[in-house]
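Reopening this ticket.

The earlier resolution said the output was attached, but the attachment link was broken on my side. Pasting everything inline this time so it's all in one place.
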Amino acid sequence: MVRYSRVPDYLQMPRAILTLLLTVALTSVRSAAQSPDSALLAEIEAIRAIDTHAHPIPTARAGEADEFDPPESVPPMGPPALLRLDNPEWRKAWRALYGYSADSIDLNRIRSLKLGAKSRGGVAYPRSVLDKLKIETMLANRHAMGRGLEPPRFRLVWFVDPFVFPLNNESAKSLNAQRRSAYDTEEEWLSAYMKEQGVVELPPTLDDYMNRLVVPAMEKRKRDGAVALKLSISYQRDLRVGNPSRAEAARVYRQYARNPSPPADDYRALQDFLIREIARQAGRIGLPLQIHVGAGSGPSFDNAGADPFLLMPMLLDTALRETTFVLVHGGFPSAAATRVLFAKPNVFVDFSSQAFLSSTRELSDVLRKWLEFRPEKVMFGTDAYSLRPEIGWEEVAWMTNASSRRALAIALTGMIADGEIDRARALQIARMVLSETARSVYALSH
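Inline output:
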């Protein structure tokens, strides 16, 4: 015979009262989870950070137009919600950067204040932006630096994508307008690097291509102060990188270097070899290799092809063990899962772009999962880039910098509350994330 105990008192409460108590309890939990310890946040906001991934714009001279990143040939698409003009964070950014004080948005006034700040700042203007954000060094993903982007405050992360696509790309360009634009850019820069190295036409053999063009260009950037290399190949193709033999790659290159139409499978094999060889050379000369993983911009971006787990064969390749890989953006929107890749000794990650693709709350959840697993592998980045005259790299940097620091404080506050770490360890982790790990990975001096 089953015996039933007396019904607990709380289950005898009127349903409305019970519902109210549960709602209050859940609200308190959520509030605590979303609110960082104020003293801890203040200390985190005071740390001078290293931004490991951004797209700053050089300062234009009088009479010159500002450089603008997004290619005009890419089909238009509205930005995610946090990058739209109605985000109230922009008013905070304009106030902090230019002294804008209105509660409403007056675009003419904002542009005027911004132009005034640039005019007064001159070549020092980009550095003044970093000062206001407490960013010590910003790593600039660019083909070349420019006026105002000088070391030590700005350091070059050099795109090596042009070397991956040396053959005729017309077949791939036909897939969509966005990829056409991306390939056109790579071809223009490959021509520029050939001219720089005194190479008049594409070398006839793969060995010549590597030894006369690719390797010397990489070594030159290292001598000139680049601190890393960057592959953003997921804008042209997926991240599945095979491991063809050198002989197979050499055959494809030799056969189609002068042929207008390489078969897709053959060309992909050559690309795979070049990606791996560039990675190997990066390790040899001591430059980390950043790779774009996860979500990308534009309506035709292949998100499935940018899954960081597609890189697993490369990350497991013992021939590439000397290469330091940095998974840029952390694999958003599946960033939490990316943490298992941190177990590879030469793999690191930054969370750039996540602060404008997701809320501070969501970012704090990702950071907590990462920091509970391997905190020494995580680095801060803003992915600051220009959207429009009123929302340039400066404003995006301000917004993502503020959100990232708050998200970090929320994650660490929760870890302290749950007894996983103490306050001293929380600050140690914060310094690692915001500067110390990047200083080590990119060999930056104090």
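Reporter confirms the inline version is readable. Strands lie at 49-54, 135-142, 154-159, 228-231, 289-292, 325-328, 347-350, 378-379. Residues 393-417 form the longest helix (25 residues).
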